[in-house]
Automatic annotation (TrEMBL):
Record-given protein name: PDZ domain-containing protein
Region (Disordered): 47-69
Boundaries of every PDZ domain copy: 286-373
Amino acid composition bias (Low complexity), ranges on this chain: 47-60
SMART domains in UniProt: PDZ
Species lineage: Bacteria, Pseudomonadati, Thermomicrobiota, Thermomicrobia, Thermomicrobiales
InterPro entries referenced in this protein's UniProt entry, alphabetically: Chloro_Bact_Ser_Proteases, PDZ, PDZ_sf, Peptidase_S1_PA, Peptidase_S1C
Length: 389
């Protein structure tokens, strides 16, 4: 199962199959499959940066946005925390030329810690951060989490008047909630857009990339350059970090995705310590087992993952996983059906991908597979996603 990335990639750096990794935004996201492809991390940078916003004094805890003079939740959040949003400028050398990509970021700690998207700074030896005050400072990349498209930057000091945006509890986010995105779409710094939460715990599988799970979906306009910027709730808490959009064009069509803030909080200590987290890779493609297929092949189970393909040289191949036999667009004969991971039932590809995503390369998992009518246990040592190119 192969795995994948995220994001609309425009601005910088019947059998539907999902490529599983087990375990980021640079080519447009298109169509989902009934199965899921877990592919490689992608990149999504935007254009040039400069952040403009206005707010009050720094604060690490939530301050009631109602105290501001704005007449709308979006205006109140912008006045309070707009200056906590920064432009992230990443420079990389390519031959005789220097390439520049940009995205957004948000200040999350008074010591100068800034969260952004991993694909914004991926492979860039030089990273700068531009604040709403006009200050442009060099930043160090402390750590990255490629599996969740997150990166943690550090500047030596924060300019005067820059607030700290509070990380909220993304588990409390509900469909229909108002959300506000602040960032630099197409290099237009300090841009504010708003919308609602369209879905939670959403999975998305960009073409040629790995399956992403647990995302917040929103119709708040998010465009290239918003990547790494915050998604606020009406109280002024960061509940997500913009990671990608689904669009057949270079722009927003009402489907954007954000990494939940609780994921950010979970990995923040590791990133601050210098961790370079990678998604684990299994190396299969598969599709959900449904009732009709189970009945057709006389199976006693009705959920799991049908292994459709095993990538050559992958952990799955080394462990001996067996793919189904395919004729045309149909399954002629089953190979392995993955029914459990480490003793817990597997409901389908989304479940399998999400749980593998919690692992690191080099860790070993036990897969329970249905093979020739009998359940067998297969131990797999997970690998790292193959490098692009």
């Amino acid at each position: 199962m192969q795995e994948g990335s995220v994001g609309q990639r425009h601005g910088g750096r019947g059998l539907l199959v999902l490529l599983v990794v087990i375990g980021f935004l640079v080519a447009g996201l298109v169509g989902g499959l009934a199965g899921a492809s877990l592919v490689r991390e992608g990149q999504a940078s935007a254009t040039t940066p400069t952040i403009a916003a206005s707010t009050t004094s720094p604060a690490s805890r939530v301050q009631p946005v109602a105290e501001t003079q704005a007449t709308s939740p979006a205006g109140e959040v912008y006045q309070r925390y707009g200056k906590a949003v920064v432009d992230v400028i990443a420079r990389a050398s390519s031959g005789f030329f220097d390439e520049q990509g940009s995205g957004s970021g948000v200040v999350v700690d008074p010591s100068g810690l800034i969260v952004t998207a991993a694909h914004v700074v991926s492979g860039a030896p030089s990273v700068q951060v531009q604040f709403a005050t006009g200050d442009r400072l060099s930043a160090r990349v402390l750590g990255t989490d490629q599996a969740n498209d997150l990166a943690l930057l550090k500047v030596d000091r924060l300019p005067d008047g820059i607030p700290v945006a509070p990380l909220g509890d993304s588990d409390t986010v509900q469909v229909g909630d108002l959300v506000i995105a602040i960032g630099s779409p197409f290099g237009l710094s300090g841009t504010v857009t708003q919308g609602i939460v369209s879905a939670v715990n959403r999975s998305w599988n960009p073409p040629g990339d790995r399956l992403r799970t647990g995302l917040i979906q929103t119709d708040a306009p998010i465009n290239p350059g918003n990547s790494g910027g915050p998604l606020f709730n009406a109280k002024g808490e960061v509940v997500g970090i913009a990671t990608m959009i689904e669009s057949p064009i270079r722009g927003n069509v009402g489907i954007g995705f954000a990494v939940p803030s609780n994921t950010v909080k979970r990995v923040l200590p590791q990133l601050e310590g210098g961790a370079q987290l990678q998604p684990a890779w299994l190396g299969i493609s598969g599709t959900d087992l449904d009732a009709a297929t189970a009945q057709r092949f006389g199976l006693s189970i009705q959920q799991g993952v049908i292994v459709l393909n095993v990538v050559s040289g992958s952990p799955a191949e080394r462990a001996g996983l067996r793919p189904a036999q395919i004729r045309g667009n149909d399954i002629a004969a089953l190979g392995d059906v993955i029914v459990a991971l480490d003793g817990q039932p597997v409901q389908g590809m989304q479940d399998l991908a999400g749980r593998i995503g919690a692992h690191q390369p080099g860790e070993t998992v036990e897969l329970t597979v249905l093979r020739n009518g009998q359940q067998e246990t297969v131990r797999v040592t997970l690998g790292s996603w193959p490098q692009q190119g």
